[in-house]
Write a structure and sequence with these properties.
With about 130 residues, this protein is mainly β. The chain contains no helices and 10 strands.
Length: about 130
């Protein structure tokens, strides 16, 4: 199984940028769609972005469109989330999730669609 490990979180001022990384060991990373979710304190886990195995398809939640970019490097077994123009409402624990196929499922916004999960990395945006 592909086991993801996130990094890159931290404290940043509103308007700043962060890049999250998720290294996925084991399994066949290059054959799996990947996703980022986030969970703010007291709230449900929320879909953020997803990318297909070949990087040919990406989807984003409306609130991050134009600010966040998901990408992947299959040679490095890594998926990234570049976050620009951060807002206080982006504060959350960000999780990397591994898909069960190359393509992005039609239910990609449902966290139950995804297989393995990382432990998460905290992103705090101060206003």
């Amino acid at each position: 199984q592909v086991q993801p490990i996130e990094s890159g979180g931290g404290l940043v001022q509103a308007g700043g940028s962060l890049r999250l990384s998720c290294v996925a060991s084991g399994g066949t990373f290059s054959s799996k769609a990947m996703a980022w979710f986030r969970q703010a304190a007291g709230k449900e886990r929320e879909f953020v972005a997803t990318i297909s195995a070949s990087s040919s398809s990406t989807f984003y939640v409306d609130s991050v469109k134009g600010r966040f970019t998901i990408s992947r490097d299959n040679a490095k077994n890594t998926v990234y989330l570049q976050m620009n123009s951060l807002k206080s409402e982006d504060t959350a624990v960000y999780y990397c999730a591994v898909g069960v196929a190359r393509y992005i499922s039609s239910t990609y916004q449902d966290y139950r669609t995804w297989g393995q999960w990382g432990q998460g990395t905290q992103v705090t945006v101060s206003s």
